[in-house]
Design brief:
The chain is an alpha+beta fold. The protein has three helices and eight strands. α1 runs antiparallel to α2. It comes from Candidatus Accumulibacter meliphilus.
Length: about 150
């Protein structure tokens, strides 16, 4: 039996909010430096003002580009739990992870809510699964497929 999981709207909304907070705090920092520059131009030079504005502007632009790329890629992304493997489908490409390669399964909770799942592979690398709709059901499927590998 195949179970399919997609990235939820909640995750997309959360990422937009994070970019918004970054923009808000960056704007506040630039406004503070600009205000101080008006009051004490010797101490807060125009070079500092333009440096802060350009670095924060570039950082926010980069963050927005990564967000838009992420949103474009997850539009047709899904995760399938099939017999003996985990299948990742993105933009017509398919990659599979055999459950034999997984050495441990970790569930990370905050305030009682499951936040993300980590699959630890035998080569000590980890795969983090987050933002999927019905993450609790995904955890159940993985626990059933990987008996005895759940770590506290």
């Amino acid at each position: 039996m195949t179970e399919r999981f997609v990235v939820g709207r909640e995750e997309k909304r959360r990422r937009w909010i994070n970019v918004g907070w970054g923009l808000l705090f960056s704007g506040a920092m630039v406004a503070t430096v600009a205000f101080e520059h008006q009051h004490d131009p010797e101490r807060y030079s125009s070079f500092l003002l333009w440096s802060v504005a350009s670095v924060l502007g570039a950082a926010n632009l980069g963050s927005l580009v990564f967000l838009l790329r992420y949103l474009r890629l997850i539009d047709d992304h899904c995760l399938e739990v099939v017999a003996g493997k985990l299948r990742f489908l993105t933009a017509g490409q398919c990659s599979e992870l055999e459950f034999e390669q997984v050495s441990a399964l970790r569930l990370f909770r905050r305030w009682g809510k499951l936040r993300h799942i980590q699959l630890v592979l035998k080569n000590n690398r980890g795969i983090r699964l987050e933002g999927y709709q019905d993450l609790d059901r995904l955890a159940e499927c993985l626990q059933d497929a990987l008996p005895g590998k759940l770590m506290p």
